[in-house]
Amino acid sequence: IYVLGIETSCDETAAAVVKNGTEILSNIVASQMESHKRFGGVVPEIASRHHVEQITFVIEEAMNQAGVSFQQLSAIAVTQGPGLVGALLIGVNAAKALAFAYGLPLVAVHHIAGHIYANRLVADMKFPLLSLVVSGGHTELVYMEEHGKFQVIGETRDDAAGEAYDKVARALNLPYPGGPHIDRLAHEGKVTIDLPRAWLEEGSYDFSFSGLKSAVLNTLHNAKQRGEHIDPKDMAASFQASVIDVLVTKTVNAAKEYNVRQVLLAGGVAANRGLRAELERKMAELNGIELVIPPLSLCTDNAAMIAAAGTVLFEQGKRADMALNADPSLELA
Ligand code: ATP
Ligand code: MG
Ligand code: FE
């Protein structure tokens, strides 16, 4: 089974061909990061324009590198949502046009299902499993009993982890996106600043990062007023320690309670070195639960993950038709 995946939910225009849902034949990502950097965030109008300019080239490149013809494809999988509506529409319409032109089945994929299925490109999925999804727009613990079935057992009540990283980075005058910069600084600094951890109610697997973000901003503001200097490295280290502590503790607790065989890490923040290391350390103490962490290139937005998730849906007989529309607030479960 060869599936072409197309992803345009945010600021990367991506296309990939995946064989049998597990083997990457090509994985092309055209990032628009440089265009959005000077605005300190993704500008939706600019994102849409870039997608229009890049999409044909990116798909062609994915097909060429894979060495697969459209006639050989089994299906085309595309991100339906969530994301920026104008950005999603470019991918959805490209997918519809190709599916129509070549008479191929069309499969609609949830962007977060894609992030989770990035793991299937590196390891067999063993159910039941738990996935910690940490990205620019999502922070969720997703329980899966079988392929294609997602149960969200915890989610953020305010900011996503990646969003908190980007906002704190901005306060520290670091370039956008700030996640990787904080990660780098955190490894050079020391945890010297006492910051809150939002555990929420006993037994809750929900998250909250806005209190932590405010605490960082207030600490920086107060120090400035008093003319005191806070080393950005120590602030980065302290902030990162708080985020990781909550993410890892809740993931480990949920993995135990739900008696899972596997824990999967997913989403852009999964690229965080501190998070990867701490999750590895804590999971090693839980004998018998396998931890899967995809390589960095599969953690951030890409289309191989969409093709991987799309392959499973295709095999389950799920099909979209020519009425498929982008859904900026599509639900996972
Ligand atoms: P979503 O997937 O929720 O729709 P998105 O696609 O914009 O959102 P991703 O591309 O999956 O999000 O992830 C981007 C986020 O990951 C950004 O917030 C970025 O700062 C963060 N990020 C990337 N690398 C790191 C890192 N090393 N440490 C922390 N955060 C990181
Ligand atoms: Mg992105
Ligand atoms: Fe994403």
UniProtKB/TrEMBL annotation:
* Presence of keyword tRNA processing: yes
**Which reaction(s) does the protein catalyse, per the Swiss-Prot or TrEMBL entry?**
L-threonylcarbamoyladenylate + adenosine(37) in tRNA = N(6)-L-threonylcarbamoyladenosine(37) in tRNA + AMP + H(+)
The protein's Enzyme Commission number: 2.3.1.234
Q: Could you say which residues bind substrate here?
A: 133-137, 166, 179, 183, 272
What does the record's cofactor remark say about binding? Binds 1 Fe(2+) ion per subunit.
Residues of the Gcp-like domain? 23-307
A GO molecular function held by the record: tRNA N(6)-L-threonylcarbamoyladenine synthase activity
GO cellular component annotations, sorted alphabetically? cytoplasm
Q: Which HAMAP family match?
A: TsaD
- UniProt family annotation: Belongs to the KAE1 / TsaD family.
Which purpose does this protein serve, as stated in its record? Required for the formation of a threonylcarbamoyl group on adenosine at position 37 (t(6)A37) in tRNAs that read codons beginning with adenine. Is involved in the transfer of the threonylcarbamoyl moiety of threonylcarbamoyl-AMP (TC-AMP) to the N6 group of A37, together with TsaE and TsaB. TsaD likely plays a direct catalytic role in this reaction.
UniProt name for this protein: tRNA N6-adenosine threonylcarbamoyltransferase
Organism from which the protein derives = Parageobacillus thermantarcticus
What is the phylogenetic placement of the source species in the record? Bacteria, Bacillati, Bacillota, Bacilli, Bacillales
